[in-house]
Amino acid sequence: MSGTDLTQMQLPRFSGIPTFMRVPACTDLAQLDIALAGVPFDGGVTARPGARYGPREIRNMSTMTRTTHHVTRFNPFAACRVGDIGDVPFTDLYHLERAHEDIRRFFEPVFAAGKIALSAGGDHSITYPIFQAMAPNEPIALVHIDAHTDTWDSFKGSKFTHGAPFRRAVEAGLLDPKRTIQIGIRGAQNSDEGWRYSIENGMRVVFIEEFEARGPAAIAEEARRVVGDAPVYLSLDVDGLDPVFTPGTGTPEIGGLTTRETLALLRGLDGLRWVGGDVVEVSPPYDPSGNTALVAATLMYEMLCLFAASRFRSA
After folding, report:
1. Exposed, middle or buried, 193 (CB in 10 Å: 0-12/13-18/19+)?
2. Domain containing 242 — which CATH number?
3. Which residues in the chain show pLDDT less than 70?
4. Are 37 and 276 in contact (CB under 8 A)?
5. Strand partners, 234
6. Within a domain: residue 3?
7. Nearest to residue 233, comparing CAs of 187, 186, 280?
8. Which positions are annotated as binding Mn(2+) 1 (predicted)?
9. Binding region
């Protein structure tokens, strides 16, 4: 398996086309093993908008990315062919369900070609149409890092907001709730509907108090137990982290994961059968320092390392 053309990564970081991690811009899926993509959409938010600008700022901050992981010495760009396939082109941006159809159509050929997709949102509603595009033969497993379960039903007349993607995915037979773990859950709610739905349908819900008591290594091991050997997707909402680290997000909740805890958790998930993932809910208008986008870009790199190692081992 050949690696990634890193010519652009040799340029000064402030120059060149601002792709994710300075990988080549590429539209030919045959040349890729892992496709990086942006989903600039926040039509599903229930509070503060702005995540439509997330992919652009994550790309900007991802110019800080280097090739080789300092702990594992693994270089995902040498192990796999990685490219930026651009942003979802929306034809009907102001109608939530039709915008989701645009997302599904964009990702369908990626999964049909057997590629791993690593996406930057956008609000969390984008994950449901990505699951639809995947069209798995059997419901997939999920590792979900977030302050919220995102298993509420409807909000102000819509069942497709960023508070509902995993409920919709279970209902559609795309997601196996018994092989789903939700990590970092916290924050007061007006109803226990989301927590109750997740627990009653068999999802393993790790509230932040349990995470704090047991630590990232134990929770990573719990995640491995829950998902088993099933094909698994990784969805990371930056509000899963404490807003000290990721203030630029639409629904911040204090008392979340630290960056070090998140890195340790992700690194404990190596070796799973990854089929894709996303980092969502970066809202640059609330991120004046750019730190949220930097954290998101760094976590995307960590996820890329997981995915590339999985693909390299199976090649």
Report:
1. middle
2. 3.40.800.10
3. 1, 315
4. no
5. 143, 277
6. no
7. 280
8. 146, 148, 150, 237, 239
9. 124, 146, 148, 150, 237, 239
In a domain, 2, yes or no: no
Going by their DSSP bridges, the two strands 204-207 and 175-185 should be labelled as parallel
How does DSSP assign 180-223, residue by residue? EEEEEE-S--S-SHHHHHHHHTT-EEEEHHHHHHH-HHHHHHHH
Instruction: Share the mean pLDDT of the chain.
Output: 96
Tell me what pLDDT residue 63 has: 94
Specify binding-site residues for Mn(2+): 124, 146, 148, 150, 237, 239
Q: Taking a C-beta distance cutoff of 8 angstroms, is the pair 122, 41 a contact?
A: yes
Tokens read off for 202:
């068999």
Q: Are the C-beta atoms of 103 and 51 separated by less than 8 Å? A: no
CA separation for the pair 143, 204 (Å, rounded): 10
Q: Report how many domains make up the chain.
A: 1
pLDDT of residue 10: 86
Q: Give the integer Cα–Cα distance in Å for 230 and 241.
A: 26
Contact 97, 165 (CB under 8 A): no
Please give the Cα distance from 20 to 26 (Å, whole number). Answer: 11
